[in-house]
Each structure stands twice: as C-alpha cells, then as structure tokens.
C-alpha cells in the first residue's frame, strides 16, 4: 500500500477537531490536531500525537504541559488559523485555566501535565494527566472527515 492509500483509509474515520495549546517563556503556542483520545479514567489520562516536524513538539517537551481545546462547529476559522491555512494575522482570544492558555468559547478545555512520552514512527505521543477541565454547553462539534470539515446533521431521530 502507498502513503496516499493509507491516508485515504485513515480519513474515513471521522474525528473531532481540537487546538493544542501551551505556554513557553511567556509566549502562547498552538496547533490544530485531531489525534487525541481518552486513555484512562483512574487516573484521568489523555494522549495527543504530535508529528516530528511540528514546531509544537519542542514546545510541549519544554513546557511539560498542554491544553486540548475541543472546537465547536462555529470555530472552523480557529482550526484553520492554527493549522496555518489562514496566513493573515488574527487576534485569538485566550483565557487561562490552571496556568495554561485555552481558547475562549470552546466546548471543552482540558489542561494536562505530561506524565510520559513515547516516540512511535514519525510522531510523539504525549500522555497527559488531566489537572483541570472546563465544559461548556455549546453548539455541535467541529468534525473532520475525508479531508474536509464536516458538521453533524440534525435528523431528530432517537436511537
């Protein structure tokens, strides 16, 4: 199988979109990601996956903490800004949660201390112990499927 075939296969799994943030030497850093999952309830652990060429890799290694900001359907522009798809300068409004910058008005903000890291292939997995979180009652999540942003369709069906 070639790389494109593998990417296409992985693109058939719909994911939520989030922005990973951290702070190093007083500067806020962020990147769009969809490689995120819950690992454990006791203790509360999550994992993010950062590519070896991403500038965020060294930032998280230095800060030893990160926040996951789960984006709502109306925050596609923030995803594009932190993915580098929008090149013009934009003001992004941050709040602070447990001494880390988080994106204002996200559906979920999760703050973690890095407890372990594993280099696997061309990515590093950062396992984070959840130290704080904020949950908002927001619109539907921003989704990514087959290389495009998507949204949930309201069908009214009860399952």
Automatic annotation (TrEMBL):
<protein>
    <submittedName>
        <fullName>Flavin reductase family protein</fullName>
        <ecNumber>1.-.-.-</ecNumber>
    </submittedName>
</protein>
<dbReference type="InterPro" id="IPR050268">
    <property type="entry name" value="NADH-dep_flavin_reductase"/>
</dbReference>
<dbReference type="GO" id="GO:0016491">
    <property type="term" value="F:oxidoreductase activity"/>
</dbReference>
<keyword id="KW-0560">Oxidoreductase</keyword>
<dbReference type="Pfam" id="PF01613">
    <property type="entry name" value="Flavin_Reduct"/>
</dbReference>
<dbReference type="InterPro" id="IPR012349">
    <property type="entry name" value="Split_barrel_FMN-bd"/>
</dbReference>
<feature type="domain" description="Flavin reductase like">
    <location>
        <begin position="10"/>
        <end position="151"/>
    </location>
</feature>
<dbReference type="InterPro" id="IPR002563">
    <property type="entry name" value="Flavin_Rdtase-like_dom"/>
</dbReference>
């Amino acid at each position: 199988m070639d790389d494109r075939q593998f990417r296409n296969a992985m693109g058939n799994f719909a994911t939520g979109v989030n922005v990973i943030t951290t702070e190093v030497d007083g500067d806020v850093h962020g990147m769009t990601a969809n490689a995120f999952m819950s690992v454990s309830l006791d203790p509360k652990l999550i994992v993010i996956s950062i590519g070896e060429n991403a500038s965020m890799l060294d930032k998280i290694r230095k800060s030893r903490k990160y926040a996951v900001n789960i984006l709502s359907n109306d925050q596609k522009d923030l995803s594009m800004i932190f993915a580098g798809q929008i090149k013009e300068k934009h003001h992004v409004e941050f709040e602070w949660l447990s001494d880390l910058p988080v994106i204002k008005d996200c559906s979920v903000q999760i703050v973690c201390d890095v407890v372990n890291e594993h280099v696997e292939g061309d990515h590093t997995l950062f396992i984070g112990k959840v130290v704080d979180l904020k949950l908002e009652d927001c619109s539907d999540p921003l989704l990514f499927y087959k290389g495009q942003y998507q949204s949930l369709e309201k069908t009214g069906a009860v399952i």
